[in-house]
Amino acid sequence: MRLRLKKELKHFKDNGCLETKRLHLEAHEEAESQNILSICAKDKETGQPVGGVTLHIEEQSCGPIALSGYWIQKNHHGKGYAIEILKSVLVFAFETLDLVCVHTKAPEHNLASQYILQKAGFVKENKETFKARRRT
User: How far apart are CA 73 and CA 51, in angstroms?
Assistant: First the structure.
């Protein structure tokens, strides 16, 4: 997976495939020994970071999957950035990285985060676990 991830990072940089109306997303490989991809979202106008997503990619019997997490800077809460970032990252994860699914968690009491995950395309599996699957 490591060699493939390097190839996909090159594709990411060469094709600028994660651009939205308001955001420019940059990908970085986090660790030499692990398949961790960190994606930072920056405001196109100011260049300031607004948030990001991390994908920890693992090979499973069903195919490659990712465990993910996201963050949004507090001064950017409520502006729709989280949904915009997550939707773009899911497209990249399924169409470019060819992942089978992406898992994430949101605490049961964090209704805002649960709402964001569902709006971005994740389905609630239990109290705190969410999953997005590649559409076939």
Answer: 6
